[in-house]
Structures
1.
Amino acid sequence: MSIFSVLKQIERNLESFTKAEKSVANYVLGNPAQVMEMTTKELAAASQSSEAAVMRFCKRIGIQSFKVMKLELAKELHTKGDGIPEIVDSPFQLEDDPKLIIQKVMFNTIQALQNTEKMLSVKSVSKAIDQLDQAERIFAYGVGGSSVVVRDFTQKLLRINVNVFRSDDSHLQMTMTANATNKDVVFVVSTSGKTKEVVDLLTIAKKRGVTCILLTQNGASPARRLADLVLTMSEEEHNLRIGTMTARIAQMAVIDALYIGLCSKRGQEVFERIVDTHEAVQHLKK
């Protein structure tokens, strides 16, 4: 059963909406059943906004049209209370027992993946694959929890003989970026898009004329404004969190999609590389 939630997406992105979009959001949150029967014009009037604001609002939560949003609302309201116990669909608590912890982790992970699938633009993913394929060199960068995702992406790209460079040292990464050219690509993963090191690195890359691809959560951020191409995942976690869990899983899924897309684009030679690297590593296991 799908657990994509329009209402939760609205709640999570509430602070990132413009004033007009927030008016629409608050009206939808307070009157979801009525909104299902409305036209764009009627919702604009009821929320004291505009039809343009309604359309922007839909796209902000990963839905391409008002009609689709009403369909998603209808599905959510129809299935509300069925299948998913409310206690599972709730924040982690110190008194949670291991069984409930497992249920919550699994539920949140599946929800994050489904939300990101709704949010992610196929056109942007296709363009990112093309840019990565054409790049002479790829400089991959991430800070903190995002660095784990970047390390995984780097390992995958090295297996298919892609010239990719990564460092956990921000000074060294900045040095590499300063030597990049317009034939290269800087690929950055940042959950918030607000990390100072990420913003500084993207600023240098832009001055060098380097193509910048950013994987980040939905919502306005300094990094998003600097990137040439943004791959948007749903906003599952905020500044205060136990750890980057669902965000990391969603990021890894996007990374895997880029990797498989790149493999498909490069054809049979890629699989020969994978076999060769696999056999090379097997010698270490003897």
2.
Amino acid sequence: MKILVPTDLSDNADQALNFAVSYAQQQCATITLIFSYFAVYDFAAEAVRMAQTIENNAKAELNKIISKVGRDVEIDFKIIQGTVANAIFSTANNDDYDLIIMGTQGASGIKKNLIGSNTAKVIKESSIPVIAVPFGSSFESIEKIKVAVDLQHDKEGIFRKLIKLTETWNLPYEIIHIENKPNFSKKIIFKGLESYLNENFPDCDFSFEMLQEINTDKGLENYVKNKSDSLLVMFSKDRGFLDFIFKHSHSVKMVYHTHIPLLVIK
């Protein structure tokens, strides 16, 4: 397995890397750190000097990071000139990465908002799974995996991806679905999902809960509010589901300002 970890060299990016290192050790995976920058300049000569300075400083910092964690996992780095999202997408797609792990916040003020927006963009547009790691969370603190299903876009292959990514954690899975009103058809589908998962993944520990909330996405936010020991998993077969999520400001906050790690699988 190959894991891509974007970094802006902030404390939160370092925390996301620590999460990735712990995960990689379980999966026998390799990690690539990616640092991107966008130089603003007026003259070509100035551009060369600025780019060289940025890259030299970044290389020094990245080498320091590798010297600290390189004993625990195989790790290298790339430095790319361009926007954060474009650097991530081009690297992930061209080099066949299996997973992106990134922090949700970096520096304060406007940088914090930009970094949050970059995380949201990657989650929304990435074709490979993404784990967003909020500040203050750690791999070791996760004791449960909460899987939110919409019972519309959930297909067999997406559950197999989930199990492949998380089975080495040996943690219980809590499958949750939220409806805004009683729905007999969805209850039948949910029961079918329960039977399917228990039959096809007998070594996994599943529990199932169907909740009713007037506002389903707000209900999910409330459900995970006090679940600091959990990883939240959301599926998206197509872009429509995440488009719905990103229309609501409180849900955007849940995606990249959430207090628990979020895994999005497509």
3.
Amino acid sequence: MKIKNLSFLSVILSFLLLWGCEKDFTNIVDVENPSYQVVRVNVKSSFQYPIDTMAVFRLELNSSKDINDVFCDVYSPDKKKINTAPLYLLDNGNPANGDIQKDDNIYSAVFPLDSNQINGNYEVKYFVNDRLNKTKQVAISAYNYNNGKSNIAPVISNSIVDPDTVVVTTTTLILTSVQAYDQNGLNDIEKVYFVVYRPDGTTNGNQNILYDDGNLTEHGDETAGDGIYSLLIQINQSNTKGTYRFEFRAKDRGGKLSNIINHFVLIQ
């Protein structure tokens, strides 16, 4: 059992202009291959909806003779893949998929943006499938996204610390829990946490992260995705006796903080 200790991004000209403004990344995973090399990956560093309604991803290779397919996967700030099928990059000179010139070894794809995609930093992983039908990840890029919605701070309520009075004779588990709500959606919540203040009022400032993952054994959380965040902690005889203050708070992906809930815990 893993328990946390208490001590705590419509025309050819448009694409040409975009290409000039985009950012080249050097985070290439597989630079060299017997038949091809990755030259660069390219994407704008940030997008803001509705000004930006699509992102263009590009991967340049030094040769295409042994390439079957190039594709990518897009991951949201909460590390979830958001494309349901591989997003294929094409070298066909078609502006509809963001490509400027055919057969120049630059593969391009357009990815639609909308207001339902959460704010934050996205990651794009690029893959090449070669003539031997071998697929490997060759590069990674990233971009920041703003979905254009008014960002409203999260709200927390119904904190639980059970037990909140403990006579310590051996190592004891304490369940901590709090409910969080965000008008922009639960996926806009970046983290829910509490900071512990010792009986003398001091703190090391560590944020103890609570989880809404349905992992009852490790975190004490009963149901994933219900907006109730939980964490199991342990105390023992080495903890200073007295009244501790647990300060609960949530933070969203736009950086806004929730209200504070204080819960007091007596260790005897």
